[in-house]
Amino acid sequence: MWRTLAGVVSGLLMLFVGSLAFNAASGQSHWPGPLDLVRVHPWVVLLLLIPVSLVGLWQAPRRDRRESPPAPMTYQLPPRNADFTGRDATLRELRQRLTSADDVARLVVHGMGGVGKTQLAVEYAYRYLEKYRFIAFVHAENPDRVAGQFVSLAGELGLTEADFDQVIPRVYGKLVDRRPWLIIFDNGEQQDTLTHALPPGGLASNGHVIVTTRVRNWPRWAGLIDLDVFARQESVGLLTHRVPSLTAAVADRIAEELGDLPLALEQAAGHMDYNQTPPDDYLALVTSQLEEMVSLRAPGDPSAVKVAALWQLSVQRLQAQQPQAVRLLRLCALLAPEPIPLDLFTRSAEILDVGAADPLGWDRTVGALAGLGLARRGNASLVVHRLVQAAIRADMPEETHTDARVQLCRALVSAVPHDIHGEPDARPRWQELLPHVLAVTKDDPPAECAAETAVLLRLASEFLIQIGDYQMALPLCERALAIDESLEGRDAETGFDLITLAQIHRELHAPERARPLAERALRLHEDCLPANDPAIATDLATLARTLCLLGDHRAALPLAERALQIDEAAHGPNDPYVSFDLIALANVHVDLGDHETALPLISRALQIREAVYAPDHLYIGYVLIFQAKVLHAMDNPAAVDFARRGAQILQTRLGRTHPKTEEAFALVDRLR
Questions:
Q1: Which CATH code for domain 73-226?
Q2: Minimal CA–CA distance to 345: which of 328, 333, 359, 365?
C-alpha cells in the first residue's frame, strides 16, 4: 500500500512541476532559486519529467501483479482446535528456536500426559501455516508403524511404489523440493527406535521437526521444551472463555481443584457448557468427587485421577439420557488413541443399537461424547484422548470389558479387508485400522473371541508382509498360530497361519525355518480342503520357492508345476496370480540350467502383467530384468533392451540408489 501511495504522490508532484514548466514556457512570472532552471529551459524539463512520471506510476502497482504463494500441503494434520487458549509465549519460543537453526531444526516438546503437547504442536502448525510449503503429522506412539505412515506419505508426495526400507530417506529427499517443511511426530515415546525416522542434518535442509513425548531422555541434538500445566491465568482464561457465566473467582477455584491440567479444564468447561451446570454446583461436585476417585490413580500418572472424576460426573447424565453414548465410549476406550473410523460401528448391527439404521440417533450418540469434551469428532472419525481411555478402562467392570472386546473383535473382522492383495482399497483401509487391531489383540483373548483374534493377527501380519515389515509381522503371526492350535476344528486356519509364517521366515533369509512350516501347512490343507483349492497352490508355491533357496531344485519343480495348474484352473490363464506361479516355475528351470524352458514362461508372465498393470509397475520391471538375465545366458543380443527398460522402471519406482536399481543398471553395463 505504501509503495502504491508513494508512486502516486511522486507522479502528481512531477506533473505539478511539469505544469510550472509549462507556465514558464508560456511567459509567466519569474520564480527565484532552483525554479530558474524551469523558467530558462522549460521544454527540456518537460521532456525529462514525462517518462519519469510514467515510470513512477507504473512501478506502484507492480506488487499487485506478483503471484500469491501456493497453499501449503498438509498430511494427516488434525483439525484446528477453535477453543485453543493460552500458550502464546511457548508458541513464540517454538517459532524462535525452530527458525534460529541453520539446517534441520529439531525440537522435543516434553510434558506429562494431558498437558496439551499435541494441541500445542497442531496450533503451531496452523498459526504459522503460511510459513511452510508442506506440513505432515505422524502418529509416533508405536515406532513400528512410523515407516508404514511414511509409505502413505510417499504416495501423497508422488513417490509411488516406494520400497519399505528406503521410504523414509526418499521422503526427506523429496521434501527438498518443498522447503520449508514441518513434520510433527506425535507421542514419540521410544526415542531410540524413532531415531531412524528423524532426518539427519545432511539429508534435508530448511526443515523443522517437532516431537511430542512424555519421556525426557532425548539426545542432545534435539532442543527440549518442557511443557508444564497451565499457568493459573491461562486456566482461568480457558474456563471463562468457554463458559461466559463463570466468574474469575470460581474459575480460579475450579482450576485449583483440577491442578491446571489442560485436558481436565477442557472437560470441565465442556461439562458445564453441555449440561448447563451452574458453576458453583460444578465446583461442589468436582470437589467432592475427586477424593472418592483416589483409588483409581494410575501408577506414576496422577492426572488420570482427575480425568476419571470428570468422566464420572458426565457419565451419570449420559447413562440416564443416552446410554448408547456410554457404550460407545467404552468401546473406544479399548481401541488405539488415534482416529477411529465411525463406520467401524455403523457397519456392525450387533455392536450398538444405533447406527446406519438410525442416522439421527447415531449422530446424537456421537455428538454427546463430543459435546461433553470426552472425544473430538471429525468428518468420519472419533478421537478419544489416551487419558480419557485409561480412566474409562480403569472403571469398567470385568464383564463389561470382556463384552466390549468381543464385540470389537467381531466388528474389526468384518471391517478389515481379507484379500489384502486383491482388494483395491485394502492398503489404505489397513493403514487406518491396523493400530486398532493391535490395540484390541494385544492381550490374551477371551474364549468368546479367540478365533476372531487369531484371524485379525494373521491378516495384520499379511498386511505387514505386503509393506515389507517382516519383523513386526513375525510375532503377530506366531500368536495367531498359537491361538488356532489351541482351538478345535481350526486345521484350515492353522494352515493359513503356518504358510504365512513360512513366508515371513523366507523373507527374513531363514529358509531352513520356513520349510517345515510350509510342509506342515500343505499337509493340513490337503487333508481338509479340496485338492484344487487355491490355498493349496499358495502352499505349493511357497514351499517350491523355499526349496530353491535351500538348493533342492529337483524337489521344487513338481510343486511349482502343480501350483500353476491349480491357479490356472481356479482363476483362469491370464490372472495375475498365475504370473507369480509362472515366475516361480521359471526360477526353478533357471536354477536347473534349462533356460530354453524358462524363457517362454517368463514371456507369458510378462504378457499377463502388461495387460493388468501400469506400464511402469514394479512387477513388470522385475520380469523384464529376469528375462534379460535369461536372454543373456542364451547369448541373445535382445537382453540389453529388456534390461534397460527394466532398470528405468526400477529407477522410477525405487530411486537410483536402491540396491535393486543399482543391480539392474550394473546388468545393463555388462550387457552393452
A1: 3.40.50.300
A2: 328
The ranges assigned to domains in the chain are 2-65, 73-226, 247-410
Per-residue pLDDT of 165-204, as tens digits, reads: 788 888 888 888 888 899 999 988 776 667 788 886 654 4
The three grid cell numbers given for residue 306, joined into one nine-digit string = 482427575
Q: Greatest CA span in the chain, whole angstroms?
A: 121
Closest to 368 in 3D by CA, of 258, 270, 288, 284 = 270
CB-neighbour burial class of residue 345 (10 A; exposed 0-12, middle 13-18, buried 19+) = buried
Beta bridge partners of 301: 298
376-377 β-sheet, strand order: 340-341, 381-383, 376-377
Which residue do the cell numbers 443399537 mark? 353
Tell the residue number behind the cell numbers 506412539, with chain if given: 141
CA 206 to chain centre: 22
Residue 500 in contact with residue 461, Cβ under 8 Å?
yes
The CB density around residue 285, as the number of other CB atoms within 10 Å, is 17
Separation between Cα atoms, residue 459 and residue 496, nearest integer Å:
10
- pLDDT of 446-457, one tens digit each? 999 999 999 999
Q: What CA–CA distance (Å, rounded) separates 416 from 502? A: 23
C-alpha cell at 153: 506419505
Cα 415 → chain centroid: 19
Residue with cell 484344487: 532
Q: Cα 602–606–612 angle (5° rounding)?
A: 145
How many angstroms separate the CA atoms of 630 and 635, rounded? 9
